[in-house]
Automatic annotation (TrEMBL):
Name under which the protein is recorded: Acetylajmaline esterase
Domain of life: Eukaryota
A Gene Ontology molecular function term of the record: acetylajmaline esterase activity
Source taxonomy: Eukaryota, Viridiplantae, Streptophyta, Embryophyta, Tracheophyta
One matching Pfam family: Lipase_GDSL
Organism name: Salvia divinorum
Length: 290
């Protein structure tokens, strides 16, 4: 998306960077959650990295980044009024931690409103700080990913969508997450754009060949074998794993992440298509889309 807007890649706040965040900054951390560590501790769920939740990222934004650009609340409001703030995509790791550590489908479905509330609180806090234009993504349909298809493998075909082969119950969780669109409706005076990652991606699973994915949508390009070329004990890059010759013919790269070709089509659907509400291009009419 930054390429389409004619911007350089957004630098990570943590990790190698020039320290110049005037063109944007990324607070994302691999495996981070929307819900706080304390919630997961009470649930008996182990998370990968501590103190990286959405609330922690908001604190970094307020306490470490904003002082670099503004020094009073008025200055910060003026600064944020002219800034596009992207809140997410987040929440997928919350569901993965719970599902992969034995939580039932119903108990994870009950977590969705808590995740949505955590994101909503963050959005409201950003609005109080002065943000006027926010992009809020939903989740990808992880029930179509080789990782989930392998972990929840079943011979009961009623669990699979007959057209796509994706896991219906898993996708139900990620589809419910898209209730984030309500945040937009509750803030009519703020430019909140809901990015429908779920349906932007589902078009690839419904018609993979139409989009050039002739090697299929459900098998990973890089993996260690199995029905979906995904092994939970040996990930892409491990000894004995192999990489397909043409990644762009696959939707999935390594079982959890998509290929550049798939991400590019999703981004195109968001920038030029009907998968943002309201249309993103309405706010970026002067952007050099190519």
């Amino acid at each position: 998306m930054t390429e389409a807007l004619g911007l350089p890649f957004v630098q990570p706040f943590f990790g190698p960077s020039s320290g110049d965040f005037s063109r944007g900054v990324n607070f994302a951390v691999a495996g981070c959650t929307a819900l706080a560590d304390s919630f997961w501790a009470e649930e008996g769920i182990q998370i990968w990295l501590a103190n990286t939740s959405l609330a922690a990222q908001l604190s970094w934004f307020k306490e470490l980044l904003l002082p670099k650009f503004c020094h009073t609340s008025s200055d910060c409001k003026n600064f944020l009024e002219n800034t596009l703030v992207v809140v997410g995509e987040i929440g997928g790791s919350d569901y993965k931690y719970a599902l992969f550590q034995g939580k039932s489908f119903q108990s994870v479905l009950a977590i969705v409103p808590k995740v949505v509330k955590a994101i909503s609180l963050t959005i409201n806090e950003l609005i109080k700080l002065g943000a006027k234009t926010l992009l809020v993504p939903g989740n990808l349909p992880m029930g179509c990913s080789p990782a989930y298809l392998t972990h929840f493998a079943t011979s009961n075909q009623t669990f699979h969508d007959p057209e796509t082969g994706c896991l219906n119950r898993i996708n139900e969780i990620f589809r419910h997450h898209d209730e984030l669109d309500r945040v937009r409706q509750q803030n009519p005076n703020i430019n909140i754009v809901f990015a429908d990652y779920y349906n932007a991606a589902m078009q690839l699973y419904h018609s993979p060949r139409k989009y050039g994915f002739t090697e299929g949508a459900l098998t990973a390009c890089c993996g260690c074998g199995g029905p979906y070329n995904y092994d939970e004990t040996a990930f892409c890059g491990s000894e004995g794993c192999s990489t397909c010759k043409v990644p762009s013919l696959h939707v999935s790269w390594d079982g959890l992440h998509l290929t550049e070709a798939a991400y590019g089509l999703i981004a195109d659907g968001l920038l030029r298509g009907s998968f943002t509400i309201p249309p993103l291009y309405a706010f970026c009419a002067r952007a050099p889309f190519k």
